[in-house]
Amino acid sequence: MHAFLNVKKSAEVSDVFWDVTEEAGLFDVVVKGLGDGEHRAIDDGREFINMSSYSYLGLDTHPKLVRAAADAVLAEGALNTSTSRMRVRFESLRNAEEALSGLLDAEVVTVASCAAAAWAALPLVASGLFTDGEPPLMVFDRNAHFCLNAMKPSVADEAEVTTVRHNDVEALEELCKQHKRVAYVADGVYSTGGQAPVRELLRLQEKYGLFLFFDEAHGISTVGERGRGVVLSEMGEINDRTLIITSLNKGFGASGGAVLLGPRGSARRRTLAIRNGGPIMWSQRINTAGLGAVLASVELHKTEELTDLQRRLQENIALFDSHITTEQHGDGLPIRHVNLGDEGATVRLAQRLFEEGFYSSPIFFPVIGRGKAGLRLMLRANMQKADVDRFCLLLKKWRDQLG
Ligand SMILES: *Cc1c(COP(=O)(O)O)cnc(C)c1O
To answer: Ligand 1, atom 14: nearest CA belongs to which residue?
Structure first.
């Protein structure tokens, strides 16, 4: 027991911090959306800017996406087919998957979220169905997202599982030398900051046939031509030794998750996923409203507007970096971890910022390593420069007072 997970222990560890967060009024804030990452709290009417929203391009409130979602559900007259998609599906589901496949140049199947995509895809890879029928040694990066780690017990029932230190390419190469088949499971962009060493990993793939499994929840839309993310930007086109899952709830601004199964036209993989991919077989499809938004977002990804939003995002990232130095400084990604070390200080700082109209997420062990409690900040294209400036100045002033 507890070879991979221990929910009771994790709950005990994190409870303390969640209690403090809740007491500080930073937990379960019920709001009305005001657009552009701004909210009004229902309970006290306070208006604030969300400094920890993962809608990096502001697409979640883009009028075109919102309108497309409403139109799609009204046009279909139903949210779901109310039967497994394997048997009967709406045309909008086929259209959305074809549109995503075209945009990303990959064979794409969709599901209700990125977490459901992990549930669907990891056991398939572990089973050996994507690696010539032989289960690979499944190597997880220690910092891989919770939704990947949570699958370890089920992955371990199909294949041998091991975990390496964060971004430890050397350790991974050793394992590639010792094992005929290896699959590496990692985030493209880590939710607590930083990214996978994609180029190095591709070198191992070239040399040893390493299978790569990436979670691009924060990479897709955010960076790369037409929002292709950090992995596809480096790879060019996806190959048959790579599988990528992503969220369509974050930068993409719509709803759902997607599995990039391999190169476009990988019909066998598609069939395997549809027939054996756990949640893909149940009611975990994106509903009609979400599909409408997905289609509108794909269209928007092909326009100059996307490039423009990515540029504005980069300007806000650079502006933040000009004020505050973090480990992620200069990496061109929107996630910044301001390490404060102390959990109490972190919550007090977040509380003071909230009083000034800025919501920021305190994070702590086990979301981040012990002793690295701090604020997780996420820059967006639709933040005003004056707001970024004011936020940074307050953060700097109070952080220094804490120190
Ligand atoms: C948020 C997140 C997920 C989960 O995405 P959902 O679409 O909300 O299920 C997966 N991986 C990473 C790295 C994330 O940050």
So the answer is: 217
pLDDT digits (tens, 9 = 90+) for 182-191: 999 999 999 9
**Torsion angle defined by CA atoms of residues 265, 270, 272 and 278, in that order, rounded to the nearest 10 degrees:** 160
Tell me, yes or no, whether 249 and 326 share the same domain: no
Q: What is the mean pLDDT of residues 65-88?
A: 96
Q: How many domains does the chain have?
A: 2
Among candidate residues 1, 125, 66, the one with its CA nearest the CA of residue 293: 66
Q: Give this prediction's pTM.
A: 0.97
Mutation pick for ligand 1 pocket among 55, 110, 141, 145 (CB with most ligand atoms within 8 Å): 145
Q: Cis check for the bond before 366: say yes or no (omega within 30 of 0).
A: yes
27 lies in a domain? yes
Residues 103 and 236 in one domain: yes
Q: Is residue 55 domain-resident?
A: no
The set of residues, in sequence order, having a beta carbon less than 8 Å from that of 138 and lying 6+ positions away, is 122, 125, 126, 155, 156, 159, 160, 161, 162, 183, 185
Q: Which residues form the pocket of ligand 1, taking CB atoms under 6 Å from any ligand atom?
A: 113-115, 145, 147, 187, 191, 215, 217-218, 247, 249, 257
Q: Residue 188 C-alpha to ligand 1 middle, in angstroms? A: 12
Q: What digits encode the pLDDT tens for the residues 127-155?
A: 999 999 999 999 999 999 999 999 999 99
